Amino acid sequence: MSSIYNCPCCGEKTFNPLTKAMAGTMRSKGRVCPKCGKRCVNGKGATIFAAIYFLISFIFVVYVFMHGKDSVWWDTHEVPIVLALILNMYIVPKIVNGFCFKMMETLRIDAYEK
User: Fold this and answer.
1) Residue spans per domain, the chain
2) pLDDT reading at 1 higher than 60
3) How far is CA 14 from CA 22, 56, 96, 103, in A?
4) How does pLDDT run across 2-29, given as a tens digit for each residue?
5) How many whole angstroms separate alpha carbon 86 and alpha carbon 82?
6) How far apart, in whole angstroms, are the C-alpha atoms of residue 98 and residue 18?
7) Rounded Cα distance, 91 and 85, in Å
8) What CA–CA distance (Å, rounded) separates 96 from 49?
9) What is the spatial distance between Cα 54 and Cα 58, in angstroms, rounded to a whole number?
């Protein structure tokens, strides 16, 4: 049975949750496998999840921005809520990538250029 931490090229378990989280989605160059030297990224599922999560978070940022002056509570908490949402746009997909979604070889042509 293959693990989500196996390299899709050589089949060896060369990634851990931290390196897998930092491999990025299909739009990134990915991480180099220590065994075979090829670059690997998280697959389509990770890319779709990151895009949907970013879109939902962005909608909430716009909502908070538009309704920030409706009450005193919103007025005083608008900036921390927006900052937390922006941080979550970056952090949550990385955490999910570390523990979910299979890896695949990078599709970017420029990933191997120096």
Assistant:
1) 17-108
2) no
3) 14, 33, 19, 11
4) 788 888 888 888 899 999 888 888 888 8
5) 6
6) 6
7) 10
8) 9
9) 6
- Distance in angstroms (rounded) separating the CA atoms of residues 25 and 46: 6
- Complete edge-to-edge strand list for the sheet that includes strand 39-42: 31-32, 39-42, 103-105
- pLDDT tens column, 46-94: 999 999 999 999 999 999 988 877 888 888 889 999 999 999 999 999 9
pLDDT of residue 49: 94
Instruction: Say if residues 101 and 49 touch (Cβ distance below 8 Å).
Output: yes
Kindly calculate the radius of gyration of the chain based on its CA atoms and give it in whole angstroms: 18
The pLDDT assigned to 114 comes to: 63
> Looking up tokens 């937390």, which residue turns up?
84
Cβ atoms of 106 and 40 closer than 8 Å: yes
